[in-house]
Design goal:
The complex is a heterodimer of chains A (256) and B (302).
Chain A lengths: L2 H18 L1 H22 L3 E4 L2 E4 H31 L2 H6 L5 H31 L6 H28 L6 H15 L12 H9 L1 H14 L6 H21 L7
Antiparallel strand pairs in A: 1-2
Helix pairs in contact in A: 1-5, 2-3, 2-5, 3-5, 3-6, 3-7, 3-9, 5-6, 6-9, 6-10, 8-9, 9-10
Chain B lengths: L3 E12 L2 E12 L3 E5 L6 H9 L6 E6 L9 H6 E4 L11 H9 L8 H8 L14 H13 L5 E5 L7 H16 L3 E6 L2 H7 L2 E6 L2 E6 L12 E6 L13 E2 L5 E5 L2 H14 L6 E5 L3 H9 L7
Parallel strand pairs in B: 3-7, 3-8, 5-6, 6-7
Antiparallel strand pairs in B: 1-2, 1-4, 8-9, 10-12, 10-13, 11-12
Classes of the chains: A mainly alpha (256), B alpha/beta (302).
Chain lengths: 256, 302
């Protein structure tokens, strides 16, 4: 079978197993939607000013939770599922078949990106129905889709790189979460971060890709003039860097 | 001359200062079932994982189906089926989905129903993998290895942890594979498994092959003396001397060149005196006796 067909088949199989696994379906899919409802309900009042532009907090959280969904699906889910599959001996078994390793991992990343896109869609529909948020069209939509694509790739690449440094399945949840949780707080996913944020918080936001992703997602989705391709470029750099690390650290076999 | 499927010469594998495999020579012909026997830590898995392409060798020559497994050629992976010692699949897929998925990795593959029938999992096709028993999961491992219709199958300790009836079933599966003309490379530390399945046995100890041959004749097993063990009831008058060795449990052990004749003499002696032995057995040396001899018996069989 050709590589694209092998990849498509593998995506279908990954998808079947994903929805049958209550843990992955809940933490990856239901969790971000739960957060969306909680945050918009509790913190959706008032407004936040970023770069001189004022956003309704409800709108802000719709964009932030869409970003959160993509990060959960592409980073957390990819890193965890790879480590679990490695510890269970699944990766080693696949390695002994003619299935190209790239097609196998590509399928996992593709599936994660599709779950992320589905979460974004559900979140957007919620935003439109509950808060009448703006829906991007034309060039805004192009910007939004490019942001989504590069962001998904960036976080999946980081997920693959992190899977290589996690020693075993027991260590996966603490390590994977310890890396992302502080960044989620400091990058405006859970707490609105406006122009009045301390400098060091902005520095963290500038260096790591989460803030760039949230900003680009929100600005392109809302059609804000604040959108900048620099955000997308930073994510692109992280994508390339993480992919290079992943190639060096990736392991198909569990440590003995 | 039959076709060489595996050809290993002077294979060495070192991890730092530790020599896991110390220069082994081994060959396997098409259609053969070979068992690599050895205690834990003897280098069995290291050797077989080099043949499978999972590890690289330190020195020596290795050829599997005419190819070098170290370069992981896809053509080799198309023709080889591997059952690893510990391995998993997605627990949320069904048995049929799993076998079909793996079959699809191969250019040439067998119909899923046929594979499930071969390993005796036909009735479990729609069961989720996580619902299978240990023995059933192991059969699924074999089914997945068979899905690509391989010429050569590696089975690394396929029945470890099985109950006796599950092992019998697994053995029948392997017998069927041999009957289908597959070449089977088996590693095990069960002597009865090697005895039952293998055409040829190689015993590995401390990284070296210490004996090789058919299970019935390996290391001169067929020329070893049979043993007769018997115990007379308490108070029996002195036994004549047949060169027997007294055992800890009060029985006597006799090594017999002609077991038929010696057993007759011993039994006749007892009957002449009007009693029967409390214990009377005649045994040929087992593969296990030979194995313990060869490996120094320092490590028990688990």
């Amino acid at each position: 079978m050709s590589a694209p067909r092998l990849l498509a088949r593998q995506v279908r199989s990954t998808n079947t197993a994903f929805w049958r696994n209550p843990a992955s379906a809940f933490f990856t899919f239901v969790f971000p939607l739960l957060f969306l409802v909680i945050f918009t309900t509790l913190l959706g009042k008032g407004s936040t000013t970023i770069g001189g532009i004022t956003y309704d907090n409800a709108t802000y959280y719709v964009a932030a939770m869409a970003s959160f969904g993509v990060i959960t699906a592409c980073y957390t889910n990819v890193a965890m599922s790879i480590v679990f599959a490695r510890d269970a001996g699944v990766l080693k078994r696949v390695r002994g078949t003619p299935m190209p390793g790239g097609a196998y991992l590509g399928a996992r990343v593709t599936h994660a990106a599709l779950v992320g896109a589905l979460l974004v869609t559900v979140t957007a529909v919620f935003g439109v129905v509950a808060y009448h948020t703006h829906v991007p069209t034309g060039m805004d939509l192009v910007r939004f889709l490019v942001t989504l694509l590069v962001g998904s790739g960036c976080f999946a690449a980081i997920g693959l790189a992190v899977s290589g440094i996690v020693p075993n399945a027991d260590a996966a949840p603490p390590i994977v979460n310890a890396i992302i949780l502080p960044l989620l707080f400091l990058s405006g996913i859970f707490l609105t971060i406006g122009d009045d944020a301390p400098t060091w918080v902005n520095v963290v936001g500038d260096v790591f890709p989460v803030r760039h992703f949230v900003d680009a997602m929100r600005d392109s989705f809302l059609g804000s003039p604040a959108f900048t391709w620099t955000d997308v470029a930073v994510m692109g750099l992280w994508l390339v860097g993480a992919a290079l690390v992943a190639v060096r650290t990736f392991r198909w076999e569990a440590r003995r | 001359m039959s076709e060489r499927v595996i050809d290993v010469r002077g294979l060495v594998k070192r991890y730092g200062d530790l020599e896991a495999v110390g220069g082994i020579d081994l060959h396997v012909d098409r259609g053969e079932v070979i068992a690599l026997l050895g205690p834990n830590g003897a280098g069995k898995t290291t050797a077989v994982e080099i043949l499978e392409g999972y590890r690289t060798k330190t020195a020596g020559e290795v050829s599997v189906l005419g190819l070098d497994p170290a370069t992981r050629p896809r053509d080799l992976r198309e023709r080889v089926g591997i059952v690893l010692q510990s391995t998993g699949v997605d627990p949320f897929l069904t048995v049929r989905e799993t076998v079909t998925l793996y079959a699809g990795y191969y250019r040439r593959h067998l119909p899923t129903d046929e594979v499930l029938a071969t390993v005796g999992l036909s009735e479990k096709g729609d069961a989720r993998v996580r619902r299978l028993s240990g023995g059933q999961q192991r059969r699924l491992d074999v089914a997945i290895a068979l899905a690509g219709d391989p010429e050569l199958l590696f089975l690394d300790e396929p029945t470890t942890g099985f109950d006796p009836s599950a092992r019998r079933n697994a053995w029948e599966v392997v017998k069927n594979l041999a009957a289908m003309g597959k070449t089977v490379f088996l590693t095990t530390h069960y002597m009865d498994e090697a005895q039952y399945l293998a055409d040829r046995v190689a015993v590995i100890a401390k990284g070296e092959i210490v004996a090789e041959g058919p299970p019935d004749t390996i290391a001169g097993r067929d020329r070893m003396l049979a043993r007769i063990r018997f115990r007379a009831p308490a108070g029996t008058p002195a036994l004549p001397s047949w060169g027997q060795e007294p055992q800890a449990d009060g029985s006597c052990l006799l090594r017999a060149e002609d077991p038929t004749k010696s057993a007759h003499e011993v039994a006749g002696w007892a009957l002449d005196r009007g009693f029967s032995f409390e214990l009377f057995e005649v045994t040929q040396p087992s593969l296990e006796d030979v194995y313990l001899d060869l490996t120094g018996g320092e490590e028990g069989m688990t």
